Amino acid sequence: MPVKLAQAMKQIVPAVQDLKRRSLHQPDGETTMPATLIALRDDRVLAVVTAPRMVAVLTFAPTLAIGLDPQMLVVAAQANLPKREESADLPAQVAGEAIAYTTFTREKEASLAVQRYEVRDGQVLFAAPERGRPDDRTIMDQLARAMAHEPLDPGRVARKDPDAPGATAPSDEATDSAPPVEQSFIPEAEGRMAIDAGTVKAIHDKLRGIGGRALFLAADGVHATKMLAAGLPQECLLSGD
Predict the structure, then answer these.
(1) pLDDT for 85-103, tens place per residue?
(2) Which of 88, 162, 204, 227 could form a disulfide with 214 if both were Cys (CB 3.0 to 4.6 A apart)?
């Protein structure tokens, strides 16, 4: 089902604002908000990936697109807006700091929103997000390539052996996800959770050495318990409860 941009931003913006506030009090003294990749599915935020560098975050966009089958991927990052005089194509722009939100949906719709902020006495004051116009489409293009991948089918997840139900997480490259016909498949709902858990775990394992994080947002306590049983690491879990 197509996701509505305005509704998606209502979920994304508060979480990113909180991340920016937290970035002012990092133990190493760094105040820059980490680059953030967000996946939405079923009209809610499902997973969040953060890393110190944008290139690292974008590396995992195909993994999220293949493994989580999101409606939308979003990249949120700090941006320094340069001063710009008014022209025939663009309005004047005052220099300042902002959060840039780059989105791309399954319907191949891309957008950019910019939210200015100021830091005063250790507090962050945010303006309302406004629609932006990208000077560089690199991030949009990378999200587009990620969302062009075919997602894994939760109805075709094979049980590896009686003691280890679940699915193998997708790699960072598109792969043929269909298991051999002779294998037995677990129920689709279990397959969905197995793929979700495997996807987030795979990203988590690769981020641990570079100061990044991968988080899965469970819908409720029951969902959280089932995700842990499916192999999601405890440190990657946030529950809706």
Answers:
(1) 777 777 777 888 999 999 9
(2) 204
